[in-house]
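Q: Now give one record:
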Amino acid sequence: MRNLILILGDQLNEDSAAFDGFDPNFDAIWMAEVTHESTKVWSSKPRTAVFLSAMRHFREVLRSRGWNVFYHELNATGGEWCADSGRLKSSSAETFTAALAESMQRLRPEKWIIVEPGEWAVREEIQATAYSHAINLEVREDRHFLCSHAQFAAHAEGRKQMRMEFFYREMRLRHDVLMDKGKPVGGAWNFDSENRKSFDKHGPPLHIPPRRFEPDTITREVIVMVNERFASHPGDLTAFDWPVTQADAALALEDFITHRLSEFGDWQDAMWTSEPWLFHSRLSAAMNLKLLDPRHVIAAAETAWKEGRAPLAGVEGFIRQILGWREYVRGIYWQNMPGYVELNALGADQPLPAFYWTGETDMACLRDALGQTLRLGHAHHIQRLMVTGLYALMFGVRPREVHEWYLAVYVDAVEWVELPNTLGMSQHADGGLMASKPYIATGKYIQRMSNYCSGCRFDPAESTGPTACPFTTLYWDFLLQHEPAMRKNQRMAMQVRNLGRLDEIKREAIRAQAAALRSHPTSVV
């Protein structure tokens, strides 16, 4: 064998640079399902099933080309070595690198080829494994992304502060997206202020839910295996319907553009009980597995605007999440790893409340957001930032624990995108590298953007007493704890001024109620 092409579980694009120059007469593909990927964090059943089903479908695509694919497949009780010629059973490898080392005894290629991994630790492990086996390793740039590491480094050079908005403008210009003769269409770079509407008392307008993808034979086999092998893990696969092939991902994109993009901008921040999808795209998992090219997604949205099928404000807001945030957080991740995961600028020291793994809490907003997360592996960005993330931030949860929870429960969670969004944007643990201020709010924000509070026993207007909203209590306690640092942040000026209106008696009552919340983290007192 000349080259062994290593394909990771989130590198399922058929046009991958890994396949450049591939010759089936001399080269082969290697893929592996390993227990460690589901146990290094307590990966939910939906997340594990999405990855494994997509990987197995991709294996079949490659084999349909007549390519030799060596595939290490999990079953309900242990690993199996799978090859075109048959299966050599009883593999004991638990990790990706252990499985790779075991394979070397059988395959003995001259060289490994891999597209750069999306996780720092995996990259280091593969390099170390190649070194220990004295094998040549060729790491190729991942052209799935629209900004290379070199381009991001050039953007970051000499900047005292990193801000996504300026990066986003550069990306718009570089890729000529929503531009007209070098100027942003509509006369503004973003229309964020137009994309913050909430539903009235009647709830969401009539909308078509996302297209479902019924499990085929491969996916059903994965579901059975995951339910047996990872029976103790959170989540439910009863309603599993995610796109796990390139063809299904393309249909999911078409469905979003046709049925929900036109309303997405208006309602992208809104929440409603028992409405997990609303007008969101449900495309992030497919993109992060690389079943869907972000260029195609951006082009489809821009075309919808040009053809008058979706308003500019909503299209711009959607494109910003992909061309802006998605590329930006990847740059932040690789620029700051491996130390980034250890950052804890606010000194948070509380354990993650146990109800994050069960959804069992009296707080209606958290009960709904956590319940759908654990059941479906999904919550949209405001539920993540301003419900589950907000509570963890103000509660003072250790940021690495928050990161590991997000990495475990969401089907679209890959470390390069999840870690900066969680540790930086949500938990402000990087001291402002990702976001210029901590995103904190009382329960009144949740009341304004949802109907959660109407079904809750807590009052978002109250910070102390038996019916005080825990979000409101913790909001004021957060400001009290971090007042000196917040005074130095211009974007926090109004919130700090409001804090000054509290007398000492009220402050002590808030501190006491917050302390009681933290002393009973599995319940609300």
Q: What stands out?
A: The longest helix spans residues 312-336. The chain has three domains: 3-140, 149-210+260-336, 354-519. Residues 80-91 have pLDDT under 50 and may be disordered.
